[in-house]
Records
---
Amino acid sequence: MTQSGRLYGIGVGPGDPELVTVKALRLIRAVAVIAYPAPEEGPSFARSIVAGWLDGTQGEIAIRFPMRPGPPPTRVYDRAAAAIAAELDAGADVAVLCQGDPLFYGSFCGLLARLGGHYPVEIVPGVSSLAACAAATMTPLVTRDETLTVVPATLPEDALAERLAAADVAAVVKLGRHLDKLKRVLQRLGVSERAVYVEHASLPDERTLSLAAVERAPYFSMVVVRTAIRRAPGTARRAAPQTT
Amino acid sequence: MTQSGRLYGIGVGPGDPELVTVKALRLIRAVAVIAYPAPEEGPSFARSIVAGWLDGTQGEIAIRFPMRPGPPPTRVYDRAAAAIAAELDAGADVAVLCQGDPLFYGSFCGLLARLGGHYPVEIVPGVSSLAACAAATMTPLVTRDETLTVVPATLPEDALAERLAAADVAAVVKLGRHLDKLKRVLQRLGVSERAVYVEHASLPDERTLSLAAVERAPYFSMVVVRTAIRRAPGTARRAAPQTT
């Protein structure tokens, strides 16, 4: 009986090919098969990040997701898991390329749930889009005793408002068609002017601007807002970068 | 007049030298001077991560922090900023090595506040301890519409309880001497049994265990807890890894 292969969930970082880790590179070049999320037609962003290091000799599994709102259909994960399991059963190691970090809102989670109990798995953490966006703003994300809240803009308006009101610093992910809702919520909370918008962090077309100036948000975008609405009694928390 | 050097804030990741990015490595080897946080006596953890790639020809500035609770004294940052500024004024590029990510609870923030307006600065994001801890647990950190809250255990007990109660998934950082307080808070919220403790993530002595079994937490440790106390009406959020 063949010994089964190992499944790797590999974070390839936010987009700049140089923000891939040494470990990710070593493993991506060593495995027999790579797998990656991709749109229904066209190239995979995750694959494009490491394309310069691939030599074309590996097997490839493109996991094609329909590009429409809402969670991807279960069958996409089922089919991808079956294709990957077939390789693992044949003794091949498979690396799933994950933009950012595999376990931070990653589509890898759907594969981990299906394959995790059945094969040896290793996760290689990556530089998250959150860290890349913070770097683009050139401002500390959180310091000292601050709380960071990462909130998907996909939440219903009231739930979004509630979570943002409770944050010291909030990072809002998954903007897309939820941009107007987010703008309304931040307006309501009186913190619109503190909202910094970042798109394509770490890529050549990276842009940082005030949220008010944004009319359309691509998938790879994020808003960071130092809400600081809630303060513990007697503490004066500064909104600007700390001096200690 | 000499053109001033460039200041780099470089994330060197959670500890495994292979979790350094290609960009961090390139810049660390290219600059004239490296600077890094260190204890009052003994070696720097951030420096140790990249030590294997240093050739010993660069200038080095050790920023020595007193190892006692509370925020580091202002004068440590003042002196370090002055030493770094002297190098930058002389035209030397300086890379500040930051464990994890520079802007995620990093001591780099104190230098950025002092030098940021005066010299060209570039931030190189790194793999955070958060991503490394999630990888160690082999469990998705956040998926779909979940909110992640990162909370320092240094907060007063009631503030800590309030923030944890409002989270879907919480990562508690800066444990150290606050371990017992955190245990009390999680007990009070009835979620102790869901708390996963990780120490030395990505290092050879990495350990993952249930929080109940932990008696002493080193500085490089974290607790991840899927609190899921608050649920939007009508949604049944699963506590286990999602299947879609």
Note: Chain A touches chain B through 68 residues (CB under 8 Å).
---
Amino acid sequence: MADHLLTPRTRIDRHAERGSHDRAVIEAILDEAFVCHVGFVHDGQPYVIPANFGRAGEVLYLHGSAESRLMRTLAAGAPVCLTVTLLDGLVLARSAFNHSVNYRSVVVIGRATAIVEREEKVRALRVIVDHIVPGRWDEVRPPTDRELADTTVVALRLAEASAKIRAGPPVDQPRDRASPVWAGVLPLSLTPGAAVADALTAPDAPVPGYLASYARRKE
Amino acid sequence: MADHLLTPRTRIDRHAERGSHDRAVIEAILDEAFVCHVGFVHDGQPYVIPANFGRAGEVLYLHGSAESRLMRTLAAGAPVCLTVTLLDGLVLARSAFNHSVNYRSVVVIGRATAIVEREEKVRALRVIVDHIVPGRWDEVRPPTDRELADTTVVALRLAEASAKIRAGPPVDQPRDRASPVWAGVLPLSLTPGAAVADALTAPDAPVPGYLASYARRKE
């Protein structure tokens, strides 16, 4: 398992100082995200579709309806790109040109493979559910054979990837530094609200602990 | 200007009840987002890159370094896909299979065109900056000729697009409805924190109003 996921196709050309190919950096960003954007090509046209995913070691799992074009394309082993982006803040500089965004993103490229064996498929679905809400899988009804048949699950090896990170205050040019304009960062974070039980949940049922203290960032 | 952005390529096949091709629905989602994921193809490999954007009427603008592969590909008029996704909540059902995410997404496809005329380029950059932080452009130093030369700006017509929206509580199957498992929604939203001035900003400088009350959703 390579610790460095650099290939000629994942080299960072722009703002190389923001780039990383370190597996630990890439995995930490992937683990904080739970939605990715998957790119594939159909008739020469690229499509980018949001999807959930999970990670177990060096494998990323995706799932979806067996009839969707996205999953059929992934299962066929076509070239794909999986990108996640975490937004950390708006960067307000003294010039329009130096405005930026604080973010952490990962781009993974490769070809996925379909998971057909039942136990492996269930294990991958557990990885996806527990990636989004750790601990949830063990409390809910597992999938039936019919549900499994209706679901395509694919694995994408985390072998060719890059991370890009921008953090910190704006970087203004010397000529702008005496400008009286307010400059700095507006932090942003994806924040959970109070959990809302559905109508079938008993009114006195406690909110599960994994929701009451839900946080994406692993401490 | 068509009010309906349906084409054979933007038909919604899966969960068609969640789909829309209505221009007003699509524009509202685009206007709440400020980061998109742009897909393009290079040597048969799709790439998906996060980018800022802005909208003026039926045109989306993107900008970036003139030397980046993304901007060179966009400016060359290659087929592209621009996707935005707003995350509204986690949907926790009583079965693993019926778990979902509440979200609003838009997929736009087409070919971009480079903007070369100076005034039009400046206008497009203003659209992008003010899309992210309304009112910011008028306070900061505008771009120099050199900065404009280093920046590629492209326009993508909002002509072929679809929206997809999932909202509301989990939908469990009849067999699961008596399950004692807590089910419902954990709302999520991208939330601003307190603005952090940089070291060059005067300690007594007030935080601009557009940051103190920053909100993506237009009321």
Note: The helical segments of chain A are 23-32, 69-75, 118-132, 145-149, 209-212.
---
Amino acid sequence: MIPRYSRPAMTAIWSPESRFRIWFEIEAHATTALAEIGVVPKAAADKVWEMGRDATFDVARIDSIEAVTKHDVIAFLTHLAEIVGPEARFVHQGMTSSDVLDTCLNVQLVRAADILIADVDALLDALKHRAQEHKMTPTIGRSHGIHAEPVTFGLKLAQAYAEFSRNRARLVAAREEIATCAISGAVGTFANIDPRVEEYVARKMGLSPEPVSTQVIPRDRHAMFFATLGIVASSLERLAIEIRHLQRTEVLEAEEYFSEGQKGSSAMPHKRNPVLTENITGLARMVRSYALPAMENVALWHERDISHSSVERMIGPDATVTLDFALARMTGVIEKLLVYPANMQRNLDRLGGLVHSQRVLLALTQAGVSREDAYRLVQRNAMPVWRGEGDFLTLLKADTEVTKALTPEQIEECFDLGYHFKHVDTIFARVFGRA
Amino acid sequence: MIPRYSRPAMTAIWSPESRFRIWFEIEAHATTALAEIGVVPKAAADKVWEMGRDATFDVARIDSIEAVTKHDVIAFLTHLAEIVGPEARFVHQGMTSSDVLDTCLNVQLVRAADILIADVDALLDALKHRAQEHKMTPTIGRSHGIHAEPVTFGLKLAQAYAEFSRNRARLVAAREEIATCAISGAVGTFANIDPRVEEYVARKMGLSPEPVSTQVIPRDRHAMFFATLGIVASSLERLAIEIRHLQRTEVLEAEEYFSEGQKGSSAMPHKRNPVLTENITGLARMVRSYALPAMENVALWHERDISHSSVERMIGPDATVTLDFALARMTGVIEKLLVYPANMQRNLDRLGGLVHSQRVLLALTQAGVSREDAYRLVQRNAMPVWRGEGDFLTLLKADTEVTKALTPEQIEECFDLGYHFKHVDTIFARVFGRA
Amino acid sequence: MIPRYSRPAMTAIWSPESRFRIWFEIEAHATTALAEIGVVPKAAADKVWEMGRDATFDVARIDSIEAVTKHDVIAFLTHLAEIVGPEARFVHQGMTSSDVLDTCLNVQLVRAADILIADVDALLDALKHRAQEHKMTPTIGRSHGIHAEPVTFGLKLAQAYAEFSRNRARLVAAREEIATCAISGAVGTFANIDPRVEEYVARKMGLSPEPVSTQVIPRDRHAMFFATLGIVASSLERLAIEIRHLQRTEVLEAEEYFSEGQKGSSAMPHKRNPVLTENITGLARMVRSYALPAMENVALWHERDISHSSVERMIGPDATVTLDFALARMTGVIEKLLVYPANMQRNLDRLGGLVHSQRVLLALTQAGVSREDAYRLVQRNAMPVWRGEGDFLTLLKADTEVTKALTPEQIEECFDLGYHFKHVDTIFARVFGRA
Amino acid sequence: MIPRYSRPAMTAIWSPESRFRIWFEIEAHATTALAEIGVVPKAAADKVWEMGRDATFDVARIDSIEAVTKHDVIAFLTHLAEIVGPEARFVHQGMTSSDVLDTCLNVQLVRAADILIADVDALLDALKHRAQEHKMTPTIGRSHGIHAEPVTFGLKLAQAYAEFSRNRARLVAAREEIATCAISGAVGTFANIDPRVEEYVARKMGLSPEPVSTQVIPRDRHAMFFATLGIVASSLERLAIEIRHLQRTEVLEAEEYFSEGQKGSSAMPHKRNPVLTENITGLARMVRSYALPAMENVALWHERDISHSSVERMIGPDATVTLDFALARMTGVIEKLLVYPANMQRNLDRLGGLVHSQRVLLALTQAGVSREDAYRLVQRNAMPVWRGEGDFLTLLKADTEVTKALTPEQIEECFDLGYHFKHVDTIFARVFGRA
């Protein structure tokens, strides 16, 4: 997480201030619950809320206590006692530090997930808008980087829309994975705290109780969360690479928006480089890489060890902040993408009609030519075109073995671009629903 | 995927014979669908089924054709024509190789997922059985590898049960991710094939149609699938490491079953090593590692490139076969695990009562002592015990500052082991449901 | 490791036959060394060599013994005793299984490294040959996929040559890392075996003694080995992606060789797809992924645990066989690469001279124009060219602010292509040495 | 990189101030070199040094320029012109931004490597000191977590010393990998800048010229650098896990130093947790994970794309700062490690002599018993001991089949602990050299 690739709302989730605020809420809700079941005085719980609700927790003060105690939650509780007064002794009764830490982490991840889901929604909006705008803009479909058959630019964006719809569903599932709360004490047995406290705090914090915690909330949940972020990042990479390809000098079918005053290169002022999508490509590598330490975090020793903690202090912010930034950047790229239909048409026309060879092949077989013969006929007319020695349509019409099977009109029909787009509506309906 | 770590049912999914059989079914169903909408003769479709239904596809023959054509699907279709006769020219009409390859891969992954889900079910059964058997077997809970407070051995297994229940749900979701079918032609536009063919084949093969395919089914689906396998593997690693810890010479609370005739070591015949769970630990590393190339496969160029193919030829079998083997091995380990309650009790007693310190701390604060003072009192009696200079209960009773707050009976109550287990029922009900 | 992506020499290293042969050599050399220091009878050592030197070890027989003992080395020794007779009891004296297994693995990795180094040498030869052939073939240099300034195709290949020269040196270092031998007994103390035996076996097997082994040879060595393979694979990916880019329809500056009879696509017979380099791209992902479990293998417990073993049974063959195949495939691609200088020139000319803008910028500043002004002048003439509204040279000559600083001749000089290649010799000399 | 896990010297390398200072040095040295070969006025170069040598570069000012130009090097050069005056137009002549950026990154990585090498040296010192202190402290060697045969605690540390000696050599090689400089212009052809400038700047910055750069320095170098850091981290993990094991309650052979005032747990005041080594375990996961995006960075498009940049802005600091912190933390752990020889002896004695079974086995075979029989004899006496039904020595002496082969004295000799340590000197000499 570095400022250059951060946005404030996501960054704020991970500030010490946010963390201490969440800690306070967990502790205060737990104290209220303890009061409700008669373990601590109701007045004490009220006092905690009264003094703490609008308090500012002094990060520097807490840090200085932690420097001595080497224990962050004790440092916080010590500071809380300074704010609340003697009633503070009823706070944290029967709880263990991880009850606070793990529940807090999950609150932060839930909030991060909410932002990421909103980010994907914004990206989906942009994709849908541009997909509909270019629903029928012809462009060449490419496999292996080689011209294949025509598609529309809208179809490319519809594919991305479908992919990010899946990513949205995955993020919702990932959010669910980590939306749990543990207030279960030293080794998760509720020895010193009633399970009703956990249920109460969970409800208040928008979480559900963790069925079995063992001081910690099990890390398979978090691994699934971060792996999901890695998948979303991989989809971003796919879209980024598509745009980078389209912006290549020789292709130039689309371009990232280039703002006034922006300089592409100190050396080559004419250059307009796809730096945003290249940047997203790199960010995707980072987000993906965080899935691994998250998976290695699962196998904690016995009821817990603390090896996961340093990992999460790093990837918690790093993965969510970076993915948030990359999603937002991609949304901007899509919204403002410069699309060049004329260039798309020029590229489409480039191969002298060879992109229709599959259709010719099919027409030949449907006219009774064997698959092997049809293939041979198409290939012998295609190769000269490929070498720049003629136009596919003309050559086919001049090939007597071809004209034995197909009339000139039938051959010409194979070169009708619109033919390829007759099911675009079907696909759009699958993706966006019927209008 | 190596024989040593393979089981036959999963391995069979990936055999050439299975693959060609699935290819045949896809092609034959597609031909039937084409016949139903009048594109090819009904009789041709019938002939394909008639000749192919019980045919044995000659792997060596197909390989030898591929050696010339360097194209696997063409090689198969050529061989199919040898079996079916001239009607074979109606097969594969308007389709592209990837329609067959990608749909086949998903069929294989779905079948693999079904086996993995069954594997997890078997493991869940074993965990549940052993959890109930040891529901109230006391053992020490450990954080950081250090004795914390008592838990039961059943709770440890209930945690694993809850974790693998989540993994089951994740596998079901992962299966859903890749249960799609594409019969959409060269670049996914259905230019030469009606979308109804895809719908028909999907239904027959137990899949749903891919909303937008682009010659290939998008690889974010597969990435999610393999990432999920990595999570399941990480959970296996956690359970494996737990057992390895429990089998340590100094701990010896449980042991892998040791069969007659088995030799632990050529050099140290008394040794009984947790080799199965160590093996699972290594296998987990492998399954986890496959998530990465799967994620890198997402960003194919434009409508497709074929870089994903070599990756999937390797990790398709490797990840599913290895995880299947590891899950089955773990189920055997759990079913036959030798559990030593007496050793658990011995370890529990090892610290002279220090594991009850948290309870004493709580009793002191509940009796009105400040948190700081209570901490100090517990600590000054705990440290001598830790150094082997006395018993915690005796020392506390002799500490006048302690006895000012608590009666001897109140102190003794803090040492009641059963106290810790009063919510085991609650937790079991959360995990296994009310009896 | 799958047959499709395997070559026989590398595969043979990992066969059971090779493994048992190496085991025999280790055991027999150790017995000879034991005889030399008087621990076992000289005659026994001679007998071992006599009976075993040309023996065929029966893999099926050893497997069937292992099925009972569940221990591979004991199974082998049992079978060896069947071959050697009673003198076999002097074999393996004071040794532990890992002495055999770990030393054998390193012998296999050393042999694999030798093949990989030879593979890189072959690739270097191909790169050098083609680099010299195209030393002065002009082509456009691209940054961000956008035309930048002219380079030569030979320079591209020289870069690859330099990169693979580094990879060769890394492989030599990686080979050195794992070229060690351990014959140090149960926990590496030489309690029951003299260190001279290790020295003898090491020398005979072409290894050096491991300074401190602890039953096992430390796995940081293997991690470094496999990480190095991951780097080599990443360089292959870079070169593969370069070729895939050059073969794009719109670029078509180079093409993979396309053999007679090969079919690019069942649907589009004109297509010639860069399937070899796409395949290498995927294989690179796999080889890279193996670095991770290798790194996770380092942290074995205490003197050893066996979690590394399953990982190495998989990645030992998988990583080396796959990289060997990918290197050899790339060598073939480079040797037979179809290079199209005319297309390179056509692409170079595509931007109406804009690729010379940097030189114009420099000429302006050298003529006393400020950097900011020069940038502005170049930019205002470049933008119309970019939009297809004129030729850069013509526009510059017509810009009076430009011509105030530069004469027409000075402007024309900026468009001299040869100017860019004056240091090609320098770079070639750095890479290939002076002629 | 987060403050909690950072040390100031390493962090300073990555500050904007350091970066701009290095940029200045590169630009100023290049200007001097240009002056020496007569391309720019000598006075201009002098002015650059005069004004810039002690200048403070205004980070906020540069940021605000970059906000408009969206180009960091142009922003810096603009600010530099504000400092230097009109002579600034001679700066950066014929160079491209990457000449500055890439050379700067390598300077930073070289400085980081120097700190890491010094860190490893400090760790080696600590390991050597403690290894010699405990050269002859007996402790049990464990394989699979199970008692094997005796080793000394010094041997464990000597192993770590040998491993980190290798890591030191790897870091030196990794430093060499990235100690290169590129001043080669837009696409690396030196079209507008003489190669002598690169040679001059390289020499002044302590680097060597990159043989072929292509605007960027090739990223296989950086991949190797970060992969090496991942290996070092994996070794740290191994040592951390060893200490965590030794500190387990049931083992307690060593303990992290526990400072006054430190609180292990808010709930269990007696607990002394190995939190430093657990923390290092987590940090190792992070450093290891950075190797992957570094490897993915290798395959830049053509002469360069900028996808590597965001990755390096993150992992450059993250990997080096985290590893520096982890190494230093480990050095502190080793220096102050509390070692408990009495507990080691107690654990050694725990198995009633079974750890000597291998020696008994050997004595039996040397006395003429067949390997199979000897194994059986040892096993039948070992199993009762394992079940707590007797002492190994006593049982062996009472086994008539054993006493047929060995005298009581010979049996007793097998139980001599010192026997295992006779080659400790040999091993220490291998690792630390002869005294």
Note: The mean pLDDT of chain D is 94.
